[in-house]
Amino acid sequence: MNTEIILTELSYKAVRSSGAGGQNVNKVSSKVVLTFDLKNSLAFEEEEKELTLTKLKSKLTSEGILILNCDEDRSQLKNKEIVTKRFLELIKKSLVVPKERKATKIPRSVVEKRLKDKSSQSEIKQNRKKPDF
C-alpha cells in the first residue's frame, strides 16, 4: 500500500450539510464527500486489492467505489481532514490479515476426568434404586 498514491487518487466534493444550523447550513457547503475508486486504484497490489474488496464489500458501491461523508464540523477544511483520517484508518484495518486458528486437541487427562466423573455419578444413581433380589 502506497499512501502518497492513495492520497492523490482521492476525490473530494463539498456539499451543503443537512440538519440544524440556521443560515450557516443554508449558505455554506461544509459537508465533505470523499470518493475513492478501489477497483481502478494503482496504489494496491492485486492481493491487497482483493483483501480490501472483500472486507469493505458492504461499504462499496456496485462499481467498487468507496464513499465517505463528514459533516461534523462547521469548517470544510476540518471535515476534509477528518474524512481523510477516517479513510486511511479504514484502509489500514482492511489490510490486516487475521491469524489462522489452530485446532487444539482435548487433553487425555480432561477426557479421563470427565469419564470418571460420569461413571461415579452413574454409580451414585444406581445406589439410590431399591435392591433387586
Shape from CA axes?
elongated
**Number of beta-strand segments:** 3
What's the pLDDT, averaged over the residues?
88
Main structural class: alpha+beta
Largest sheet: 3 strands, antiparallel
Helix content, binned percent: 40-55%
Computed Rg:
29 Å
Cα-to-Cα separation, first versus last residue: 82 Å
The percent range for strand residues is 5-15%
Q: Uncertain runs with pLDDT below 50, 5 residues or more?
A: none
Number of helices: 5
Looking at how many chains there are and whether they match, the oligomeric state comes to single chain
Strand order of the largest sheet: 1-2-3
SSE order: HEHEHEHH
Walk me through what this model shows.
The protein is of the alpha+beta class and 133 residues long. 47% of the residues lie in helices and 14% in strands. The protein is built from 5 helices and 3 strands. The protein has helices spanning 3-9, 23-27, 46-55, 76-94, 108-128; strands at 11-15, 31-37, 65-70. The chain has a 3-stranded antiparallel β-sheet, with helices on one face. It starts with a helix and ends in a 5-residue tail after the last helix.
